[in-house]
Each structure stands twice: as structure tokens, then as C-alpha cells.
């Protein structure tokens, strides 16, 4: 099963290497990892999607906790939460395909962020499923480049993943 | 007050109560060595940085205080790596300081640059690269706090040369602020109650105790608990000394080379109280059959150890001294019964033993070291057959009296560790029980022992082989002794060349007088015991087999 962890860390040099190193060394699989600072510049937040059974997840969490720079870990998988991922995709778009691609963009509420002579670049945000579906829809048009940021997640309502 | 980074470092070390450091100088630590010059700190110059790391580790294990070592950048720092990994695997509080190239040259493959914080990330509890001289006091404070609290372990502090030579305003360190680091304290009361109830309900309890008991200083509590529960106690290699082995409830060591009776007791117990242990594969053998009839209670300071290898029925995370006290408050004295009788019978039926032979038997030497030192010595070991015999045939009765490389199994550990132990405990008799292979991995430290007049005793059990390798080749590779036989130097002459005393012992009758002479001598002594070459360590649980499936 896949779990989504929200991890607050001290924004110290090397903290990403410590977390990534821990995963590879102990044989845990990272599906995606997104990291950036929070409202407090001294604290960063990572959203880590990890694949594994409950025992693996327990070890991941406990080992992460042992890192001195890790402040707090919340497993949001089972809690009501909002999750988003950003994708940018560049597709080959000759005259004939352009209109169809723009229609697809419309359906997925994706934005056209670049209009090249031979290509269109789309940007979309949404859940993982939506992004997957967009990718599938664009596949027949020759995707030249695609990249995803990895998921970020936040609990709904008055539940907080903060230091205090 | 204006000070240099190096002066701030020395002051911070003194504030931590450090009086002794083990190290080796070089370009990037020249400012630190300059500040050491008239600091009053006792500095021991080893002859290799690996020796400094192991000596600091041995010092820590013998005294219970954190060990400190220093090395220069690049090769100096990488030479510490084995010693740091060794301390990490055995959870030893060690603080290592390394020099680094100046910050403006970092990341440019500069002369003697090595990314030591990157290299040691997986083998330290935490590490630091100091980027401003004003951070030094805070970093040192944190480093010692992290190394010594919770589950202890090594911390490395990397200091670029411009940071140690740069000026800073000295100010007292502010209180620690580490939001991500909260060492556990006492155990959860509900879980302790559950554990106490399970213990009271058990009929065939066994206590399985490890190094965690020693680092928590919980040996007294362990003894009380065992007596109250009337539970036989077996210890891991790291736990030797946590429970007096001359106690009627002692089963000695368990596992691959444990006693038959310890392994049988674990196989047949209905309750296993595991304290300060991590269910290492050398202990459990085939994991599915380990204590398969037992309810398992696991108490440890590190939550990540709970359920890592073996699922526990009841788990208590906390400082073991507190947890054992909590348990003691909730238990009533039990009465000895049929279980104890059964265990006693096993002890009588299957004692550790060896056959006398033409040549000196290695086990005999260990027994004689025990007799001559009246069991009062600090024993360190290298790694191999001699290490297992040292674990089996010396009777350990005090914590911190047996010092060995358990987790990493580092040949070359014992001798520098003995030096560190002797520095920390100048009034104790210290013995390194060594193999002819292992001793050559850090033999240069003879110069250190002579230099600082440390009367350490090295007993080489010389079998002319990398004996443990040979034993596995004999048993599992059809006696094909591939590259495990050695032609050795003349250890007596070698000792003498370094300015130590050397003795060769070839007759059983000479063992005792030579040992007595060594203990009396105020010099380092190296003894070359020429022993039976193809003796095997038994009992032995072949790798991957269940504990009750022992050879020998
Ligand atoms: C640094 C290191 N290299 C290799 C090994 C593998 N190893 C384990 S025991 C052993 C043989 C040790 O020989 P010796 O010191 O003579 O001890 P003996 O087994 O003969 O008592 C070896 C090579 C090790 N543990 N450590
Ligand atoms: Mg040997």
C-alpha cells in the first residue's frame, strides 16, 4: 500500500541527503518526494509517498524520527486531506492536433503556458489520478517531455501539521 | 572576549568535562593543535587515526564517559571511518572532530578534501559541518548531548581551517534547542503493567539482556529483577558483564556460539524478557524458530528496534534503568520451580568444555587469564575465534569489564581499545585477547602504549591462521583453506623493537608464570601463545539454523 507522509524538518544543510540516504540504505521505496520551505524559513516540509506494508511503514517512520533534523511526521493517508501535484507536459502539436489538444486542456482545466511553432506546453495541477488521466489523454499526440513535481498534501479543516 | 574558533572549541570541550582526547595532527587541524598545546587537555597521539577512534571508543566503554578523537581532513578523516562505524554499530558515545579545507575551497577537490559529513552520514547518529566560528560552542554542546543521551552513538563535527583559525566573540552557550530530538524517558505505565502481569503469569521465563543494560547503567536493576522473577539470564556478546556470570541464574551468552543451556532455555521458555537488545541474526539464528513458544516482552530505548527483526507481544520504549525500576515496583517475588530445575540440569549436562591436547589450547589461556586476574581485569578482544573463546571462558561479573567489537566485528579493534581503556582506568589491569591476524591490523599502537607508559597486556592466541575463516572453510567449504594461513612475524622481537616486553609461550606450564609477570610489569607486554592450530569454536549454530541445532 502507498502512504503519504508529511514530514517537518529543520532546514539545515544536508537534510534532504539524510532523508534520501535513509530510504535507499534501508531499502524503502520512495514513490515521490516534494520539499520546500514552510511559512517559517527555518523549517521545511517534505511530502513523501512511500510504498510498503504496515511493518515497512512503521520502520520508515521510526527511522525517520531518529534523524535529529526531523521534527514531526504525520501519515495523512487515512485522514481527510487535500493533495495536489503539478505537471508540465510538452506535446508535439501540428496544426491539425492543436485544437484537439486545447480541448483536452480545457477538460482537465490545464493551462497552455507555451505556444511553440511545433509544440504546446501544458501545465496542470490536481490529484494524482487527474494528472494520470491527463497524461493518458495526451499520449496519442507524442509527448516530448513530461515532468511531475510529486505530490504535496495538507490535512483538511482545523487539523494541522505544524511544529506546535 | 575575542577568541579563535579553536580556542572556543577547547573551552567547549572543557565545559563538557572532557579531559582526554585521542588524535593525530595534520594541516587542517593545525589551529586546533595550537590551541591544544597549552590547554591542559590530555592528548594521546596514536600512530594511526583508526587507533585514535578505537581508543576513544574503548575509553568510552570502560569509563561510561564519551570518547573524543581528532583527525585532520582528507586521509585523516577517512582513517576514522572504521572506528566511527564500529562505535555506531555498538551504540557507543563518541565525538569525532575532523579538520576540513577552508570554506572557500570546499567542493573543489582541494588538497586533502574529503566530504566526511557525507561519508559518515550512514554511520553517525548525527554530524555537523561548522560554517561560522560563532556556532562552535553550540555545535559542541549539541554533539555531546546527542552522543550521550537516548541510544548513544557517534557524532562527527567537521571544522574547516578558516573556522578554527577565525575569530569570534566567546559567549556562554544558550540552552539547547533541538525540536527534532527528544530522548525517551520512562516507560508507558499501561505497557509496564501488562508486562508485569505477563511475567507473573509465566512459568518458564528467561531474560535476554544486551549492551543496552550496560549503557543505561541498569545492571543492578537487572539482577534484582532476575532474582525476583527467578528467571535465568542470558546475555548477548555486548551484554556480557551486565549480569554476574558467577550467579546461579546466569546462563552465559546465547546465539551462534552461545552455551547449549542458554540456547535450549530460549527455545523452551514461555516468556522472553528482552532488555536492551536488538535480535541480531548472530543471536536469533533462524528467526521463525527463535523463542517460538514464548510471549516476547521487548524493552529498549530505541523505538525503531521494537519489531524490527522479531515482533514483540508487549513493547516498552524507555530508559532501561527507569523501565526496570517500574517493573520492579509492580512485581512480587516468585518461587523457584520445575523450570529452574530443568535449566540447572542442562547446565550440568552440557557445560562448555574442551579436550586438552599436545599444544596449548586457546581456551586454557583464557581460563588462566581469568585466574591470574581474579576476574578483575578489563578484557578487550579482537575479532575471530579468540574473541568467542574470550566470551565463553572468562567469567564476567561487572559491567564495562568486557569490551569487544560486536556489531561491526572489526579486526584491529581490541588493541587500541585496550589503550583507551587503560588511559581511562589507569588503576585497572587491561588485557587485549588477540588473534595473530587481528593484532597485525593495528600493531603500530605498540608505539603509543610505550610512549605513554600504558601497561596494557596483549595475549595473542597464535594459531597461524585467520582461525574463524579457517573454521568456516573447514565446516562449509570442504577444508579448502583458501588464503587463511599466515606466516607471522616474531612477535617477541617486534614487541622489543617497540620498547615493550615480549614473551613466547609454548608449554602449558609457562602460561601462568608469564601472565603473572605481565600483570606485574609496568610496561606494555605482548605474549605470543602458540596454540593448537585447528581448534574450533563450539558449540556452533550454523548460520540460518534454529538455536537448538548446535554442532559440537
Ligand atoms: C577488518 C576485518 N577484516 C576481515 C574480517 C573477517 N574476519 C573475521 S574473523 C577473521 C580471522 C581473524 O583471525 P585472527 O585474528 O588470527 O583470529 P582467530 O580467528 O585465529 O582467533 C577474519 C579475517 C574482519 N572481521 N574484520
Ligand atoms: Mg589466528
Structure description:
The complex is a heterodimer of chains A (164) and B (552). Chain A has 164 residues and is of the alpha+beta class. Chain A has 2 domains: 2-75, Alpha-Beta Plaits (2-Layer Sandwich); 82-152, Alpha-Beta Plaits. Chain A has helices spanning 15-25, 54-66, 95-107, 128-138; strands spanning 2-10, 29-37, 43-51, 70-75, 81-92, 111-115, 119-126, 143-148, 152-155. The two termini of chain A are 29 Å apart. In chain B, strands 3-2-4-5-7-6 form a 6-stranded parallel beta sheet, with helices on both faces. A 6-stranded parallel beta sheet of chain B has the order 11-10-9-12-13-14, sandwiched between helices. In chain B, helix 3 (49-63) packs parallel to helix 4 and helix 15 (362-373) packs parallel to helix 21 (508-520). The mean pLDDT of chain B is 97. The interface between A and B is medium-sized, with 21 and 19 residues. The structure holds thiamine diphosphate and magnesium ion. Thiamine diphosphate binds next to helix 16 and helix 19 of chain B.
Beta strand count of chain A: 9
Quickly give the CATH architecture of the largest domain in chain A: 2-Layer Sandwich
**CATH classification class of the largest domain in chain B:** Alpha Beta
Ions, cofactors and other ligands present here are: thiamine diphosphate, magnesium ion
CATH topology of the largest domain in chain A: Alpha-Beta Plaits
Q: Which topology of the largest domain in chain B does CATH recognise?
A: Rossmann fold
Strand numbers in spatial order across the main sheet of chain B? 3-2-4-5-7-6
Question: What is the topological layout?
Answer:
The complex is a heterodimer of chains A (164) and B (552).
Chain A: E1 2-10, H1 15-25, E2 29-37, E3 43-51, H2 54-66, E4 70-75, E5 81-92, H3 95-107, E6 111-115, E7 119-126, H4 128-138, E8 143-148, E9 152-155
Antiparallel strand pairs in A: 1-3, 1-4, 2-3, 5-7, 5-8, 5-9, 6-7
Chain B: E1 2-4, H1 5-15, E2 20-23, H2 30-37, E3 42-45, H3 49-63, E4 67-71, H4 75-89, E5 94-100, H5 116-120, E6 126-129, H6 136-148, E7 154-160, H7 161-165, E8 167-169, H8 189-201, E9 205-209, H9 211-215, H10 219-229, E10 233-235, E11 250-253, H11 260-268, E12 271-275, H12 281-284, E13 295-300, E14 314-317, H13 320-330, H14 338-349, H15 362-373, E15 378-381, H16 385-393, E16 402-403, H17 414-424, E17 430-435, H18 446-451, E18 457-462, H19 467-476, H20 491-498, E19 501-505, H21 508-520, E20 525-530
Parallel strand pairs in B: 2-3, 2-4, 4-5, 5-7, 6-7, 9-10, 9-12, 10-11, 12-13, 13-14, 15-16, 15-17, 17-18, 18-20, 19-20
Antiparallel strand pairs in B: 1-8
